[in-house]
Structure formats: C-alpha cells, structure tokens
Amino acid sequence: MGKKPVLVVLAAGMGSRYGGLKQIDPVGVQGEAILDYSIYDAHRAGFDTVVIIIKKAIEKDFMETVGKRLKNAPVEIRYAFQELDKLPAGYAVPEGRTKPWGTSHAVLCAAEAIDGAPFAVINSDDYYGASAYKVMYDYLSQNTDPYGYCMVGYELGNTVTEHGSVARGVCETDGEGFLAGITERTRIEKYSGGIHFTEDGENWVDVPANTTVSMNMWGFMPSFLEEINARFSAFLDKALPENPLKCEYFLPIPIAQLIQEKKASVKVLTSPDRWFGVTYAADKPVVVAELKKMTDEGKYPDGLWK
Description:
By secondary structure, the protein is of the alpha/beta class. The chain has 8 helices and 13 strands. The chain has helices spanning 34-45, 56-70, 103-109, 111-114, 130-142, 223-242, 252-260, 284-296, and strands at residues 6-10, 49-54, 76-81, 119-123, 126-127, 148-155, 166-173, 179-191, 194-198, 204-206, 212-220, 265-270, 276-277.
C-alpha cells in the first residue's frame, strides 16, 4: 500500500486583478476564506494531509487568519515556502524581479513536504465543489501508473464571471478521455449571445458553454516532481533572456511536454459542480451569497472548524 494522497494548495501568488490578499479574504458565514471550504471538502473526500505553499512575505498575515483557524481542522497542515531565490545551482534572480516563478516552481518548493506521496494541486482562491475532491481522491488512491496523472475539468459556462474577462485553459481530449492539449485563452468573456474570447482585443470567437476547461486542479504521482525539477533549468535557459522579470514556469508547460513526449497521460475527470472564485472585487458578494446559501441548505456547517 502506497502513501495516501495529499492536497497541495497554491497560496503564494498575489491577486493582481483583485488587489489585496485574496487567499485570506473572509467570505464564509463565520469569516472563513475559500481555502477553508476547500480543505473541508478535501477532508470529507479522504485527504488528511494538506501542504499549503505561501511566501515569507505573507506568512504573518496568513498565520494570524487562516493558519489560526486551521489549527482546529481535523487534518495535518504542513507549510512550504515559495521564494524567488529557490533556483537551481548557477542561476540568480534577475535584478528588479519581484514576481514568483509560477505554479510548477511553487510545487517544486513543496517537494519535501509532499514526501513522495501522490498529490492533488489546487489554487487557494478557487471554490471547486465537493465532488471534484471525491473524484480526485479516488483516482489518486487507486492509480498504479507512475506516469498516470489527472485533472478535474469544468464546463466553461460554470466558470465565467459577470464582471470582466477570465483566463482559462481550454482542453482538448482524445477519444478515451485523456488530455491531448491545453490552449491558454487569456481573455474569455460572457456577452449577450453566449461566451467568446479574443487574442488581439478586436476579433472575437465564440466558445460553447460546455467546453471543458482547466481550473488548475491537477492530480500527480511523485514522478512529476522529478520531471519538473529536471526541466526547470531548461525552462530558465530559454525564458530568462526573453522575459527576465515576468517569465513563469506554469504547470501546463511541463504537462504539455510530457504528453507530447508520450511519457505521461492525464485523465480528464469531470465535475458537475459550479466553480466560483474571486477574480474581481465585484465577484466577492456573489461568492459570499453562494456560500451562505449552501450553509442554509445544510451542505456546510455554520462555522467549518467548530
């Protein structure tokens, strides 16, 4: 019997569109953050170890709010730190760079805390819904293929906001439900006729509401840590000269390489749940109302960690 899957939470990035520290923003009935609900749902699905990736700059604020509450949660919480200077030997942080190195780098910073277990990765500020954790946990705990990864896909129509554009990874799958490729669309918007995206700000292309998109909920085997570690230097060699201050090593980059090389497969699991999150400040009241409604319906207790 292998190790039980652990949940890895990406909480080191600062929300640029939103302003402020989105990871700790109170939205729940008793002032909980979205992250509290994610951990609650994950625990119900079977996860009992959670690794939260933060950065030193937000540690104090995080520990005084979410961290303090999570001391009452029935899960083991481990912390990992994503710092700019955590780079392979021979590499230095470019002068003037303040941006973290992206989601693959964040996961790499958590390798020690993950400790050789299969693991799921989520964003700290996205609400994924209870069923997503269930399908993810079941897949990771039954999977025996060291290069068999997975993701939870959502219907695009369940993930767009009324308050502006969103960036989504549009997924293509093969005939057997495995990921064939992801195209990052950085500007997708709702309009009166449906949903559309633009690359140049002028020409718009419609996208069906039932298109599968990635919301950065991934499931990996330990092999993935070795792969991103081995590939990080090559990424830096190419990206640093091109964009020293802003280049980021996102999770879809090594995933796409591994699929292309036919080295790994990614099973696309689906969730009927509606995703929601706070991309813009105007989204917050919507999230607060949703969580209150689910609490009133008995889906969550009034106060998660009592």
